[in-house]
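Quick one: structure tokens for this chain, please?
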Amino acid sequence: MKAPHFLRLLVLSGLLFVSFVAGAAEDAVQAIARDVARPAVLRGQFSQEKQVAGFRNPLRSQGRFVVARERGVIWTTLKPFPSEMVITAERILSRQRDGTTRVELDARQQPAMRSVNAILFALMSGDVQALSSQFTVEAQRDAKGWALSLTPKSPMLAKAFSSLQLRGDRYVRQVDIVEASKDRTRLTFSALTEAPATLAADEAARLD
């Protein structure tokens, strides 16, 4: 898989635990940051609709995810084809429906890609200093929730996408992505829960 695919997945996963950085509307950003939950473990379901430039019909997929703040992300696609991506600070591992696994990226072998993982964990851990150089942020907030526009400053991130639009309340509920290729993706998150607050044994094993 190409690096931009990992960038998209890493950033999307991190946005589930998004930590907002100061931008043009600092007060609004800080208010949104106070509203958003930051649990140790977050589980939920996702649906994805991707409109590829030049194609009429969008690509759709559905699945579930687990984000553990101190451990990583388990991103499981159920439809149309089962697969799984496990992301930790050190590696990205894919698992296909036949049970085969493959290391897609090993930060120990590709040190330049370690910064990709670092962005994810900065998003998850609230490292404002690490994020402030990566995004320009515009924020809106009303009684129904909030909306954020993120524009990547980093050339590395800009290779993957040109902008992100987030909407949510206590959690991120929707993410719209415009890629550098002009492809557009919408992710919708549902059935979000903080319980149980610890990983199950099989989840912990997959993140080891």
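The helical segments are 3-15, 26-35, 114-125, 128-132, 155-158, 201-207.
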